[in-house]
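Annex B. Sample input.
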Amino acid sequence: MTDYEKRYAATWGTPVGQDCIELDTALAAWVAERLEFMAKHTRGWPMDLTDSNEDWVELLSKRAAALRDYITYRHDWAPENADKIEEGQKAMAWVATAMPYLWD
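Annex B, continued. Sample output.
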């Protein structure tokens, strides 16, 4: 193994390094999976954000789907995909705003 390969393996070749190569999609995938889990298993809801558990589940699912679409269309900058990318970015911004409510 060359010195370069050793340095790469110790940095960008690690799981964290690989995530950082495309941190946007790594974060989107990580968050989407957890929002999907919460939507499936949640028992409560934040009364400040929604009126019912059903509304909360729908909101979590919608944000997760937007993040999944972001991952799918992120590299395809065709004009018809711009809205999918923008919705994914909005979903991640929503996660930041909703952080105090993301627990069960």
